[in-house]
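Input/output pair, single chain:
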Amino acid sequence: MSEETEKKPEKKPKIPRQKMAEQEPKARIKNFQEVPFGFSPEQAQLEASRCLKCKKPKCVEGCPVNIDIPGFIKLIEEGKFIDSAKKIKEQNSLPAICGRVCPQEEQCEKLCILGKKQEPVSVGYLERFVADYERAGGKVEIPKIRASTGKKVAVVGSGPAGLTVAGELAKLGHRVTIFEALHQPGGVLVYGIPEFRLPKAIVQAEVDYLKALGVGVRCNVVVGKTITIDELFEQGYDAIFIGSGAGLPQFMRIPGENFNGVYSANEFLTRNNLMRAYQFPEFDTPILRGKKVATIGGGNVAMDSARTALRLGAEQSYIVYRRSHAEMPARKDEIEHAEQEGVEFMILTLPIEIFSNQNGYVRAMRCRKMELGAPDESGRRRPVPIPGSEFELEVDTVVVAIGNSPNPLIPKTTAGIQTHKWGGIVADDETGKTSREHIYAGGDIVTGAATVILAMGAGKKSAYAIHQELTGEDLRLAKKQEDKE
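Output:
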């Protein structure tokens, strides 16, 4: 036996997970610019080289839109960045958005085999890198669009579900028009997520891409008021997708929630994001710039609100959350960024009343300390009040970020649409079909407030189902056969 055949293959050296450079916390709390700067090409290739190239990649199973994750990562490692972007866009029309706001740590990265012994591959960071590289270089190409089917589809709402449906159907040759209630397309992507986490220019670029595919966008149209679903059918639409989201804020129903200085997170973020209160006086949008701001909740929206308050000049910004740090549903990155920026976390704390001064403006919030008991239906330990633990927290602004419900406008104005007990539309999990013929629904209007990528996954399923109804072609079956081959 020769020395060469006896020689064992060298083990691949351990490469640490690459970190994106970021604005320093003290600097970024004074501006609304994006916090992370993104990977350099060298970092992206190094991170891509960490992928194990599994024969049966579990990461794909964790992706709601079934991106070929090993495929696009391999192309990055080879330096084929534009080809990598094209690979992602085979399944996902909004990679620059997903790379920034999707909870990869709970989906694709959670199933990464490398993550069992090391940190998982940074799938989200890599997705963001190639999308940004393609856009910055002016290399965005319009994919081949099928011949016109002659069918018209209306999409209600321009959030992630609506944008996904529109893009998929346009590529399949359908004539698609999006109807958006607000003056700018993007839905929750523009009014709900701050500029420092998802720049508006990124969302606009993705909308422009869909327009280049032939998608029409009509803003300032409130479906259910300006025009009804039935009137859209009268205008000749063959199918309608409802992706109007969950924009109805929930409140705690405690005394004092009607005082001046109490906002829903929806209103607080919309004033800053879409109405640009943060650019005062250039944009004269009224908003109370509190010095001591309490945000109630522990999700991503709560983190966005607390961090926005700092950028508006708050001296103290609190997260008030009734469970412990471990139960917070917000992304790990968002919690870490909030902590770095100086947000104070008041965990195991429940607000029970809000007090005002003689002019009706918030002056304090009465809270009660909690402890964790047995798990509830969500699987998280239930917070239990500690007797005699009440105290007052001096604040001048309160932002309630405890969730949203589906807006009832469309269900109330559309006969025959079945809704569930929370007010959302009942739709089939695999197709988005509703109780009305030719009407589909997906995203938060069905599930309640959830993630961007889950809304996109629902939109993609609905697009395929609508296409099958209008043409008879079953794309899902064709995909399964292709995978077998």
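Residues 16 and 119 are 8 Å apart (CA to CA). The radius of gyration is 24 Å.
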